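chain below, 325 aa
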Amino acid sequence: MALLPKAELHLHLEGTVTPQTLVELRKRHGKATTLAEAQTLYRYEDFLGFLAAFKTLTEDLQTPEDYELITYRLIEQLKAENVLHAEVYVSVGVCLWRKQDFDALFEGLERGRQRGERDYGVSLLWIFDAVRQFGAEAAQSVFALAAKYRGRNVVGIGLGGDEKKAPPELFREQYAFAADHGLRLTIHAGESVGPESIWGALNLGADRIGHGLTAYQDEELMEELATRQIPVEICMTSNLRTRCCTNISDHPVRRYFDQGLMITLNSDDPAMFGSTLNQEYRLAQTEFSFTDDHLRELARNSFEASFLPAEKKVAFLDMLDRAPR
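prediction:
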């Protein structure tokens, strides 16, 4: 699986910051931190603990140069995983909540993307992510920025955070605005609450579902997802680390695959969860008996479910077909 060309579609930029890079960022901003101290941030007990750690980590992302650095480092990591294309969430909602100059930060993001693409040949598109518990008005501000930058490698919008505090229905107008402006629609749904959240996401017109962990609880929903081939972005290690899934044997990934859902494998926040995309593929094989051909099918799904133009999808799929078996 390490040599298998693939795409990653559920990946948070901030969650790729390693403890080593965090030490470097803090040093830039006059905060002396040891590696051991930085590593404590990557320990938490549950989903809400993870959200708090994620928010704390973003405190050290302050300048365009910081965002340029972590974007470049991300692309370096993607190359090592043989990821040819990634669609990366940026927590724009947190940037605005911190009252940062996002226009300046975006220039840093783009510099990092351009340098990384030049040096490593990895394709990358941005998804601007809002924080659901900040409310609909805050999400609108995020999606307006996505519309503003749609011509500059921003392909879609997303909604993350605490599902219990803000169901999809609260964001109907904001998702309609994003769709009207040509943006693709993703949403974290059914990660920490039941299948009703996934129904809500579908009612918003979601093109892809992030996590979808609880879909199996509703057989009608399973049939809907399979029939419509709505891609579900599976993040196994993430679900275990946040305790949204208690045991790996309880994860529904194999059931989804066997029932014909279009699933992709993803690392979500790899530095914070201690995983990589290759490890997710390996986990599918060791824990759920996915064969090499199954993994190749999942890699194919990752390109087909992407928001790339058709001709670029075909080019990547050709590269996958030529890859040694």
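The longest strand covers residues 123-131. Strands lie at 6-12, 83-90, 123-131, 154-160, 184-189, 208-211, 232-234, 263-265.
thats it, cya
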